[in-house]
Amino acid sequence: MRVLTWNCRRASARHPLWAHLLTLAPDIALLQEVGALPADVLATYSVRSEHPPTRRGTPQRFTTALLVRGHIGTRLVLRSAIPWVDAQLAHFAPNLLALEVQPDHGQPVVAVSTYSPAWPVTHQAYEGQDVTEVKLPENPEIWVSDLLVPALRSMLSQSSLPWIIAGDFNACETFDRWKGGLRGNARWLGRMADLGLVECLRTRTGRLTPTFRRPGHEAPSCQIDHLFTSSSLAADLCECATGDAREVFEGNLSDHLPIVATFRN
Q1: pLDDT above 80 (res 176)
Q2: pLDDT score of 185
């Protein structure tokens, strides 16, 4: 079973990114910032997509999407044990597109296509609330990626299926080395690991592997994209790598590299 995650940088239906995605031939694709899907992708995959909210709360023009060569089943409502977090999980549900899926060539899984935007949760959402289980001590803000942790803490044990949580989390350890000091990114990755989740790219490469090229730079320098799985699924991980940087960047396909993982069926 091949799993791919990729921020598509709002690719339109005519964009060459889609031909490249089809050559990578994932069984499950967890996509972010999808402008529109072309006919050949729609003919190949079952698709579910939703428009995440803007900072003002209106729908974005792009979608968060999940593509499966097979069957898409139940849409999961992510919940935690914290009422104010649940209200925000509902607001950001299109950013955390969670579905039970059955690929034709692979086992059934819960897949969560994740898009944590580069702006934080509004302070009004948690004013006067206890945020100790959510907020990173080193960071002055709460982010959508932070909301995901208490939801997974509550829900991972409720399903007999393995989970895949992948996408653009806007969280990278290199941010902690920027001017101003720690921002809690390493702690956030530790919280995901404490849930029993395995970051597949780091597991296979043994190091931070950049996936995002910042504006004005020639090479990627930040790994803000991640592919996490339950430990049971990670035990069947054969390989995990980014897509070819020259092909992606010189072809102007995206400013993110795809992450592709292969698992034994």
Answers
A1: no
A2: 86
Domain that includes residue 130, residue range: 2-263
pLDDT for 179 beyond 80:
no
Supply the CATH number for residue 201's domain: 3.60.10.10
Tell me what the mean pLDDT of segment 180-194 comes to: 87
- Of residues 116, 161, 158, the one with CA closest to residue 139: 116
Q: What is residue 128's predicted lDDT score, i.e. its pLDDT?
A: 97
Q: Which of 14-23, 35-44, 81-90, 214-223 has the lowest mean pLDDT?
A: 214-223
| Other Cβ atoms closer than 10 A to 30 | 28
What is the DSSP secondary-structure string of the chain? Answer: -EEEEEEEEEE-TT-THHHHHHHH--SEEEEEEE----HHHHHHSEEEEE--B-TTSSBPSSEEEEEESEEEEEEP----S-HHHHHHHHHTGGGEEEEEEEETTS--EEEEEEE--SSPPPGGGTTTS--TTTS-TT-SS--HHHHHHHHHHHHGGG-SS-EEEEEE----GGGGGSTT---SHHHHHHHHHHTTEEEHHHHHHSS----BPPTT-SS--B--EEEEEEHHHHTTEEEEEEPPHIIIIITT--SB--EEEEE--
* Sequence-ordered alpha helix ranges (H) in the chain: 17-24, 39-44, 83-91, 144-155, 185-194, 200-205, 231-234, 245
Average pLDDT over residues 162-174: 94
User: What domain count does the chain have?
Assistant: 1
Position 265 scores a pLDDT of 82
CA separation for the pair 218, 16 (Å, rounded): 20
